[in-house]
Amino acid sequence: MAVLATPSAVPRCVESQLHATIDSGHIPGSGNPGRDGRLAHAVLVDFENTSTRACTLYGYPGAAIVGFDGSQVQQATRTTRGNYGGRDTTVTLRPRHYAAAYLEGEKSTAPTG
User: Fold this and answer.
1) Which helix (DSSP H) or strand (DSSP E) does residue 99 occupy?
2) 97: how many CB neighbours lie within 10 A of its CB?
3) Neighbour count for residue 47 (Cβ, 10 Å)
4) Staple partner for 82: which of 2, 93, 95, 104, CB 3.0–4.6 Å?
5) What is the spatial distance between Cα 87 and Cα 107, in angstroms, rounded to a whole number?
6) In this structure, what CATH number is given to the domain that contains residue 89?
7) Beta strands at 39-49 and 98-107: parallel, antiparallel or unpaired
8) Residue 68 DSSP one-character state
């Protein structure tokens, strides 16, 4: 009886395999009121697998504000409660294929009166 080999799992993507860009054609939320009187802003970030091997992405990408010297100033909080929704999903990226994720932000409105 022949035993079939189990295909190996597709490895997780590493930074050197990915090229991230802001998709300027898909920028929703131009300061529209969101929850709790905050202004919602979001951009769509495209991730391209630039390697020659498939890899997987899972969950939410991290984002941070960095200074001119490249040092991290503030880390963004990851949440599934954003205005644009979201789910933890595993995505398999073949070479030269894309996945996308919304990067949201909120700006509190100044109190009046």
Assistant:
1) strand 98-107
2) 12
3) 20
4) 104
5) 23
6) 2.60.40
7) antiparallel
8) T
Helix, strand, or coil (residue 6): coil
Q: List phi, psi (to 5°) of 81.
A: -100, 20
Total domains in the fold of the chain: 1
Residue labelled with tokens 């001119």: 68
Contact 58, 92 (CB under 8 A): no
Domain that holds residue 41: 15-107
**pLDDT tens digit sequence for 18-66:** 999 886 665 554 445 555 555 556 778 889 999 999 999 987 777 888 8
- Amino acid, single-letter form, for residue 95: P
In a domain, residue 2? The reply is: no
**Which residue type sits at 112?**
T
pTM for the structure as a whole: 0.66
Q: How many CB atoms lie within 10 A of CB 67?
A: 9
